[in-house]
Every structure is written in structure tokens, then in C-alpha cells.
Specification:
The chain is of the alpha/beta class and about 350 residues long. The protein has helices at about 40-50, 60-70, 85-95, 110-120, 160-170, 225-240, 245-255, 260-280, 305-310, 335-355, and strands spanning about 25-30, 80, 105, 125, 145-150, 175-180, 200-205, 220-225, 285, 295, 315, 330. The chain has 2 domains: about 20-35 and about 260-355, Aspartate Aminotransferase, domain 1 (Alpha-Beta Complex); about 40-255, Type I PLP-dependent aspartate aminotransferase-like (Major domain) (Aspartate Aminotransferase, domain 2, 3-Layer(aba) Sandwich). Helix 3 (about 85-95) crosses helix 4 (about 110-120), helix 3 packs across helix 6 and helix 8 packs parallel to helix 10 (about 335-355). Homodimer.
């Protein structure tokens, strides 16, 4: 770091994104991107904005908020739009957590949570998952601060039911519960169904995974009008033009062609189930996933060795080198041909290891 870097951030450990190497043509199963392109209407909507890039985007995100509100059965005032769900989460942490309301999150979950907490100098408590990587809702009872739960969780792929989410809400009436639903469209239940009953619930979603728009950077929050107003206060205090014209148009077009994306989600879930079965037949431990990835451990070698062996053969997966996760790799679900290549490569690696 330079000698001018603020001492406030000297100890900050930044988030490590999935690698994007350029040295060869890899099969990328490491960043939970969709294997399918956006719907045809998205490309047309983006192209229509190219001649208007001299103009600022709509700071109120009017059209997209209206479309999202209609899609989820709420009012536009219940929607806040962000530059990816990461921006939404960062603003939510800043808006609702502080000395009087610490943050609570799991020890094995999305790696940006502790980074946001540290960057914003927010007090936080890490709550360990159970031995089987599940969340015990009772561990979050009486935590009237700000609880954030990735549901389904990453990197485990496990999901809580709405009864568990509601139990946490009831147990913390004076705290905010943020439910990060980046992967919910692949088989879990959305907490959006509880929004009309709880003013302390904020649901955060993204277009990156189920709507094939990771490169567009588009996320949003759904909550009561007061929570959304708080988020908008911070957004307008930092970057009111946070979402560009092309991304706003792409988001509206994607919602208009929702059947295309939900069909893709069902296809990905079916492929996921098939690959999980094949790995289990090979003796792997595979956690039951409700996401577009699998969290799995080989009986033949540790997670780091499997990650490295796959990389050498041109297949990228994700490995988290921490005590509770080091035996596992996280495998993004691609299309049928991609996953056939992945399984065949794993078989080749394990055969070589046995010789």
C-alpha cells in the first residue's frame, strides 16, 4: 500500500472473487454464472440504449422498479435497485447496523459479509453453522441487531424453509433480517412471501445468476417502504446514477421474458441433480443443493488437490481453504456437455491418483 492509504483501512482484507484467468480456454465452473445467454429481448433492449449514452440514466429507476413491483406483487416504493446485489448489501449494512445494532452472520457463508463489516467499521458476530453445515434458527434468536442470512447459503447450497426464516423474524422484532436470495430461483422458497407481515425483513435479489446477467451488475432489495427509504437516502448520498441505462433496460426486458429464465433454472436444477447422483455413486460427499452449484468432497483427495488437478486439465472450480471447507470444492452447474466433461475429468484424475 502507499504511504497515503488511510489507516482506517490498513488492516482490511478485501474480498477474493473467483479467478478469471486468460492464459487458456478453461471450462469455467467457478463463479456460478449461468451457462445460458440472456433472452433475445435483453440484447435488443441494450442495443436501443446505445444511442442515448450521452444522457444520464434515470436515478429513480422508474421503469425497472415498476416492473419489479408488478412481478413481486408489491409497490414501487418497496423496491430499491442497485449496481449488483453487492452494492445493495453494502448499503443495507451501513443503513441498519452500528454500535447499537451489531451484525450477525454464519461462519461459512458469502465471503463479502465480513469484508463489508470491516470496511464500514461495523461490529459483528460470527455464528458457526452446525456440524452438517445447516443453520440452527435458534442460534439467531434474541439477536436484535442486523442478521444476514444467505438463503440458499453459499458455498454450501443448503436452504432454510420459510418457517425457519419466520421464526428468526418473530424472535427479533427490533432487529433487521436481511435474506440474501442470490440463488433462490434454483429450488428454494423466497422470503418475499413474508414481507406483508414483517417490517423488519429485507429481501435482496440479483439478476446475475438465474437471469444470466452477471456481467450487467444488477441487484435489488424488497422491503417495507421505510426500510427502502433508508436505503435510498444512502444511495442518493453516494451515487444516484448507480445503474446505467443499458442495465436498466436489460432488467426490464428480462422480467418481460421471465418464462425463458425459469425454464433455464429448471434445466440447471435437473443437471445439478444428475451430476450430484454421479458424484455420489463415485463415493463423493455432496451436500443437498438448492442453488446452481454443488458443494462436494472427493474420497480420493482433499479439496485443494482436486481443485489444482482440475485446473491443470482446464477445468476451473472454487476452493475455500479454511478449516471447515478445505475438503470441498464448489462446482458451478453448466450445461449438459460441460458437466459431462467435468465428471469425465474427475474420473480421470481419481484414476491417475489411484495408480
Amino acid at each position: 500500500m502507499s504511504r497515503f492509504f488511510s489507516s482506517r483501512y490498513a488492516a482490511l482484507t478485501p474480498y477474493t472473487p473467483g479467478e478469471q484467468p486468460q492464459d487458456q480456454d478453461y471450462l469455467k465452473l467457478n463463479t456460478n454464472e449461468s451457462p445460458f445467454p440472456p433472452s433475445p429481448g435483453v440484447a435488443a433492449a441494450v442495443a436501443a440504449q446505445c444511442g442515448k449514452l450521452q444522457l444520464y440514466s434515470d436515478p429513480q429507476c422508474t421503469g425497472l422498479r415498476r416492473a419489479l413491483a408488478e412481478h413481486y406483487g408489491v409497490k414501487p416504493a418497496n423496491i430499491m435497485v442497485g449496481n449488483g446485489s453487492d452494492e445493495v448489501l453494502d448499503l443495507a449494512f451501513c443503513a441498519f447496523a452500528g454500535e447499537e445494532r451489531p451484525l450477525y452472520f454464519a461462519d461459512v457463508t458469502y465471503g463479502f459479509y465480513p469484508v463489508f463489516a470491516a470496511k464500514n467499521r461495523l461490529p459483528f458476530e460470527v455464528i458457526p453453522l452446525k456440524e452438517d453445515f445447516t443453520i440452527d434458527p435458534a442460534d439467531y434468536f434474541g439477536k436484535n441487531g442486523v442478521t444476514v442470512i444467505a438463503n440458499p447459503n453459499a458455498p454450501t447450497g443448503l436452504a432454510l424453509g420459510l418457517d425457519a426464516i419466520e421464526a428468526i423474524l418473530k424472535a427479533n422484532p427490533d432487529g433487521v433480517l436481511i435474506v440474501d436470495e442470490a440463488y433462490v430461483d434454483f429450488g428454494a422458497e423466497s422470503a418475499a412471501a413474508l414481507l406483508d407481515r414483517y417490517d423488519n425483513l429485507l429481501v435482496v435479489r440479483t439478476f446475475s445468476k438465474s437471469r444470466s446477467m452477471a456481467g450487467a451488475r444488477l441487484g435489488f432489495a424488497i422491503g417495507c417502504e421505510a426500510l427502502i427509504a433508508d436505503l435510498e437516502t444512502l444511495r442518493y448520498s453516494t451515487n444516484p446514477y448507480n445503474v446505467n441505462r443499458m442495465t436498466l433496460a436489460a432488467g426490464e426486458a428480462a422480467l418481460a421474458e421471465d418464462d425463458y429464465y425459469m425454464d433455464n433454472c429448471r434445466r440447471i436444477a435437473a443437471i445439478r441433480q444428475d451430476v450430484a447422483g454421479q458424484l455420489e455413486a463415485m463415493g463423493w460427499r455432496v451436500l443437498p443443493s438448492k442453488t446452481n452449484f454443488l458443494f462436494a468432497a472427493s474420497p480420493a483427495m482433499g479439496g485443494k488437490a482436486m481443485y489444482q488437478a482440475l485446473r491443470q486439465k482446464g477445468v476451473l472450480v472454487r476452493h475455500f481453504d479454511a478449516p471447515r471447507t478445505r475438503d470441498f470444492i464448489r462446482i458451478t452447474i453448466g450445461d449438459e456437455a460441460q458437466m459431462e466433461r467435468f465428471v469425465n475429468t474427475v474420473k480421470e484424475i481419481e484414476k491417475e491418483a489411484a495408480q
